[in-house]
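Most newcomers find our protein records easier to grasp once they have seen one. There is nothing in a record beyond a sequence line and a structure line. Getting from the letters to the tokens is the skill we practise here. An example says more than a description, so a record of this kind follows:
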Amino acid sequence: MTRKILFAFIITCMIASCNSKSAFNYSQDIVKKEQSLTADITSTEEKVKNFLDKEQFDSIAAAGAKMEKLVDSKLAEIQSQPAPDVKEAPAFKEASIKYFQFIKSMYTGYREFGSATTPEGREEQMTKLRNIVMQKTDAISAMQKAQKKFADANGFKLEGN
């Protein structure tokens, strides 16, 4: 009897360990996708600032379109990748999708701003872009909360925590 209980306990621990590892790997994969954009984001932000100073609106549109495409490819990867069969995985996947959609929306804003053909059109697009940027803190916070809840539910710690 004791052997059966011990065996069941070991099997349960192994399953929990596999689930925790699966959850951790999924979380890390999402983080890697985000981090893979960092250099391009930094470079694009610098270029857009210079283009704006020189009123090179077509270049702003091109930079926005390039980033839109790049972010969209990461978004498509997340959408097509099945979430692991662990606690809070669907919620974390959904939060990840929303976060990447938010990032993409910023670059859609750049493209639309740069593509505007009149000063009034650019002003309208700039207002929309400012509204998007004002949501940045909320978008990051929502993603971080979902990731923390996912980590807590599956017994692993996030890097930096």
